[in-house]
TrEMBL record:
InterPro entries: 6-blade_b-propeller_TolB-like, AB_hydrolase_fold, Pept_S9_AS, Peptidase_S9_cat, WD40. The keyword Protease applies. This is Acyl-peptide hydrolase. One of its GO terms (biological process) is proteolysis. It comes from the Bacteria. This enzyme catalyzes the hydrolysis of the N-terminal peptide bond of an N-acetylated peptide to generate an N-acetylated amino acid and a peptide with a free N-terminus. It preferentially cleaves off Ac-Ala, Ac-Met and Ac-Ser. Also, involved in the degradation of oxidized and glycated proteins. One of its GO terms (molecular function) is aminopeptidase activity. Residues 452-658 form the Peptidase S9 prolyl oligopeptidase catalytic domain. PANTHER family: DIPEPTIDYL PEPTIDASE FAMILY MEMBER 6, SERINE PEPTIDASE S9 FAMILY MEMBER. Transmembrane segments: none annotated.
Length: 668
């Protein structure tokens, strides 16, 4: 008996010894991560199509292919595998075809393609001259509604020298798009059988988000038709007959935004999202689920008392409920509003984050969901349960020793309660103090949640405790919490960041002598504000940030925000100088700081980082500036993404790690 038992132990030990040891995450793991997006349920409810992007290491870019998986999860089929990316998969109403957008075979503009689900190669069905931005099938399967932006002829000359930019708009630049001209995006009707393209709308206004009525006779869409759309963020809902030369009817007249329309199954109503604020500028806001008769009338606000942002409205097939995603205090759950009672039922939740939502005509919902230690996968929500459909990410997480993730609550010096996230390196005793990085989210409207967080997992993989702080200005805690930083940047947010820091030190989590801070976008901006306010941080990494805010006026894409929130610089100079204190008081900064940004960023131009780098260089504070060539606000080149985190870790290691013992403590 003892021999058999000993043999069993020996066999188990041998198997365990042969298993590969798990390791902390490294920046190079970015190249292994695949991204799942855009799940689309087939008309018969049997399949879910989706996009899957992977890194092509030779070309140093991501390539996206189309896949589909059966609703029961038993079958998975790759539909495309070429060198070009495909996007926006949509089922034809009869379920026979899957359409998609691609730029292939030397085409300069993206075109629509059809793929027979029974097999064969995709076939191009359009020869569009202009930028295809959106498209939707009519329920009868005969026509497609297209959103096409007028073609840009500025480079049509034979010479390779581009014609000058001729600018006369109030809002004249935008990240990725560059300098803005007056080309409009209009609606078109495309006959699938004859391949004929008819113009549906014309003029100087943009039309977006087309959705068909169930009888295929009308299209609802979104447009800003104020005197100067550049000067406000208003959008309204319109309905137009699906025939050339038809006249659009305006359904809403809210001064804020109305967007994301979806028709009820019987065609009598349209659900959409309406802004809480009725104002020309609405950054600090949360969308309200609203329903209006398709013929016009008084809108019904379903989620107005929820005091949480909702998104992705989708009707249930029976037309009795509308499902939405709800952002609520570090979580995003799936809920459904009963149209008659107005009651909200939670369909699926927990310590996770849902994204994307599509109904199955036979019942249930397809969605994306991620967890603290699992990147997004497709899930099916049925009968109050979430069932995992894809297993793409198992290969990614298999070799990794991921950080343990938990929530914690801190209290700021003014008494405000703040909800935060904590990432502890695996196999480190809870009572052991470690170098700690507060990595601050951007936005500012947004939240750190229980979804998978690549950035913080990578930093934790380097042996750091990492904290995400949902400072005032973040979403998920109600509108008042979000709006409290209006025109008062770098004040309450910093108070909340320092309150979270105090909590981590007082509870024996963070080593007070080894504190770092960093972030990207508004996270970079708050990094600058924080190191100017408090000198306890021994290292900082400020990405795509700014400090001398008065110089951002006319340099970035936020003229609407500036003029509405801060006022004109020559009239409200004191307010502008107040929010520019990190640069104007740069001599208070003692923290060695790494600055980063994209060369072509029009969101937060690289000048914001250049100015702070120059200031610290002149002051003799250790600093470095990294500029990523031809990159916008978000880095898209995979090796640049790896490089960014390599540099983060080297910078923090240099200033926060003083002994080999700290490194050894993070090893499994």
């Amino acid at each position: 008996m003892k021999s058999i038992f000993f043999l069993g132990l020996l066999t188990t030990s041998t198997v365990l010894a042969q298993l590969p040891a798990k390791r902390p995450m490294q920046p190079s793991d970015i190249l292994r991560l695949q991204n799942i997006a855009d799940p689309q349920v087939s008309p018969d409810g049997a399949w879910v199509a989706y996009t899957l992007s992977s890194v092509d290491k030779e070309k140093d870019k991501r390539n996206t292919d189309l896949w589909m998986i059966s609703w029961d999860g038993k079958e998975s089929v790759q539909l495309t595998s070429g060198p070009e990316s495909e996007s926006s998969p949509r089922w034809s109403p009869d379920g026979r075809y899957l359409s998609f957008v691609a730029t292939r075979n030397g085409d300069k503009d993206s075109q629509l393609w059809l793929l027979d689900r029974r097999g064969g190669e995709g076939k191009k069905i359009t020869e569009l001259k202009g930028e295809l931005e959106e498209y939707e099938w009519a329920p009868n399967g005969k026509t497609l509604a297209l959103v096409i932006r007028d073609k840009d002829y500025s480079d049509s000359a034979k010479t390779k020298v581009r014609t000058p930019y001729v600018i006369d708009r109030y809002h004249f630049k935008e990240d990725r798009k560059g300098y803005l001209d007056r080309r409009a995006a209009h609606l078109y009707l495309f006959n699938v059988e004859t391949r004929k393209l008819d113009t549906l709308t014309t003029g100087t206004f943009d039309e977006t988000s087309p959705v068909w009525s169930p009888d295929s006779k009308q299209i609802a869409f979104v447009s800003n038709r104020t005197a100067d759309p550049d000067k406000n963020e208003n959008t309204d809902l319109f309905v137009i007959d699906a025939r050339p030369k038809a006249t659009a009817k305006q359904l809403t007249n809210w001064a804020g935004y109305d967007r994301s329309p979806v028709w009820s199954p019987d065609g009598s109503q349209i659900a959409y999202l309406r802004s809480t604020a009725s104002s020309p500028f609405i950054m600090y806001d949360q969308p309200i689920l609203t329903v209006i008769p398709a013929t016009g009338g008084e809108p019904k606000l379903l989620s107005v008392t929820l005091d949480r942002p909702v998104r992705n409205p989708r009707w249930a097939p029976d037309g009795k409920t509308i499902a939405v995603l709800v952002d609520d205090d570090r979580r995003t759950y799936v809920g459904a509003y009963d149209l008659i009672s107005g009651k909200l039922d939670k369909l699926a939740g927990g310590d996770c984050a849902y994204a994307g939502l599509e109904s199955n005509p036979k019942g249930g919902w397809a969605t994306l969901m991620s967890k603290p230690q699992l990147p997004a996968e497709i899930y099916v929500v049925e009968n109050g349960n979430a069932r995992r459909l894809t297993t793409i990410q198992d290969a990614f997480v298999a070799p990794l020793l991921l950080a343990n993730v938990e929530g914690f609550t801190s209290r700021s010096k003014d008494g405000t309660q703040v909800s935060n996230m904590l990432f502890r390196p695996a196999h480190v005793p809870a009572g052991q103090k470690l170098p700690t990085i507060l990595f601050i989210h951007g936005g500012p409207v947004g939240q750190d949640n229980f979804g998978f967080d690549l950035s913080r997992q990578l930093l934790a993989g380097g042996g750091y405790v990492v904290a995400g702080v949902n400072y005032r200005g973040s979403s998920g805690r109600g509108l008042a919490f979000c709006k409290t930083i209006y025109s008062d940047w770098g004040n309450k947010e910093v108070v909340d960041i320092l309150g979270a820091t105090d909590y981590l030190v007082a509870n024996g989590i963070a080593d007070p002598a080894k504190l770092g801070i960093g972030g990207w976008s508004y996270g970079g901006i708050l990094t600058n504000y924080t190191i100017t306010t408090d000198q306890r941080f021994k290292a900082a990494a400020s990405g795509a940030g700014s400090s001398l805010q008065i110089t951002m006026y006319g340099s970035d894409q936020y003229v609407n925000q500036y003029e509405n929130e801060l006022g004109l610089p020559w009239k409200n100079t004191e307010k502008w100088l107040k929010v520019s204190y990190p640069f104007l008081k740069a001599d208070r900064i003692k923290t060695p700081t790494l600055f980063m940004g994209g060369e072509k960023d029009f969101n937060v131009p690289i000048a914001g980082s250049e100015q702070m780098y120059q200031a610290l260089k002149s002051l003799g504070v250790p600093t470095q500036l990294i500029i990523y060539p031809n990159q916008f606000h978000g880095l898209s080149v995979p090796t640049y993404q790896v490089d960014r985190f390599d540099r983060y870790l080297k910078w923090f290691d240099h200033y926060l790690k003083s002994s080999v013992a700290v490194l050894e403590a993070t090893k499994p």
